[in-house]
Design goal:
With 350 residues, the protein is of the alpha/beta class. The protein contains 15 helices and twelve strands. The strands form three sheets. It has a five-stranded parallel sheet with strand order 2-1-4-6-7. The chain has a five-stranded mixed sheet with strand order 8-9-10-12-11, sandwiched between helices. It binds manganese (II) ion (MN).
């Protein structure tokens, strides 16, 4: 286990000791599955996915005022603005596996603070919090774990026993699970479920909180499962079109850049799949929106240090994991940023 047992107990007590929790979570499979696990356990409160930027800041103050929570949980969100924490009048519990960061006025749980290099995903940690009460939610945990390219042996084998059709014996690596199995398909469905209008996303989240088995979605066995499946299908078509486009991009050096204009944010999903298809490249996927590029970086070697150096003198920011991170760069600085990025990649090779 990534964190000591008593830590998981401590977080469970935080959950037990509140009546109306507000959950902020990253809108990817890891953040969403982490929220689902805690929400299905608690059966109270509400959740708000953090879309478009990997940061919880004062923009979200209004939502806190509306929800009037007695406790706030922040799941899989890499950054919290100290200004936001200073304004909170209720306890804030932050469970994450990025950074680690230092912030005041928050209870911060990160496996990296316990074991060096243990970046067990937020879902994996949340499963340890609730598993005794809800062992039947292992399939929910799998969505976040596989979605974050992780493959913890024991849990995977347990899941394989429960759902051999979703994770066949031959699948032994996270990328094979993500891109070549039914559990991987479910990860994509949940990813795509989170696109589009907030009203519809909330409806899907509400449905997902009642679903008992992954087959309800994959085989469309219940109205709730079918709704989520169909919603994902329509988004999937947009995604496939962009993926085809991205695959046709040629790059002469190590860096493969693909940018697009569009209403849906697919940078995480596209960059993951592009790295799977082009494992030797450093993948940069950007979506142009409101005068800036929202970016995802993927590489089989550390890319975060390159990103951080390339941001020197650039109007933008970035962060995340060593090999998978995100960022944002103003349009006016985009070309210069790319030059600096390529330059840093070259320097690294020398
Ligand atoms: Mn994560």
């Amino acid at each position: 286990m990534a964190m000591p047992d008593h830590i998981y107990d401590e977080i469970r007590k935080e959950l037990d000791g509140c009546k109306n929790p507000l959950f902020f979570f990253d809108d990817d499979p890891d953040g969403t599955a982490a929220f689902m696990l805690l929400y299905r356990y608690k059966q109270e409160g509400r959740g708000i996915p953090i879309k478009s930027a990997p940061m919880l800041d004062l923009k979200f103050l209004r939502m806190v005022e509306e929800a009037q929570p007695d406790k706030i949980f922040v799941l899989d969100v890499p950054m919290i603005d100290q200004g936001f924490l200073d304004k909170m009048r209720v306890p804030v519990i932050w469970i994450d596996h990025h950074g680690p960061f230092k912030r005041d006025r928050v209870k911060y749980y990160n496996p990296l603070n316990y074991k060096e290099k243990d970046n067990t995903c937020t879902t994996g940690n949340c499963y340890h919090i609730v598993k005794l009460a809800r062992p039947q939610d292992l399939w929910i945990a799998m969505i976040g774990i596989v979605g974050d390219w992780q493959f913890p042996k024991e849990l995977m084998e347990e899941f394989r026993k429960q759902y051999p059709d979703l994770l066949p014996k031959k699948i032994k690596t996270p990328d094979a699970a993500l891109f070549g199995s039914e559990i991987g398909k479910l990860v994509k469905i949940i990813s795509f479920m989170l696109k589009g209008s907030m009203a519809d996303v909330n409806k899907c989240l509400q449905y997902l909180s009642t679903i008992k088995s992954p087959h309800e979605i994959l085989r469309q066995e219940t109205p709730e499962g079918r709704y989520i499946y169909n919603k994902a299908q329509s988004v999937w078509q947009d995604y496939d079109r962009l993926l085809e486009h991205a695959k046709s991009k040629k790059s002469r050096d190590k860096v493969l850049v693909f940018t697009y204009d569009g209403s849906n944010s697919f940078t995480k999903e596209l960059s993951n799949e592009m790295l799977y298809l082009f494992p030797k490249k450093i993948i940069v996927v950007g979506r142009k929106k409101g005068g800036e590029y929202k970016l995802s970086f993927r590489s089989s070697t550390p890319v975060r240090p390159i990103l951080q150096k390339a941001l020197a003198g650039i109007d933008g920011y970035g962060g995340g994991h060593e090999n998978a991170c995100g960022g944002c760069v103003k349009e006016k600085d985009w070309e210069r940023f790319l030059e600096q990025f390529r330059e840093e990649v070259k320097k690294g090779k020398r």
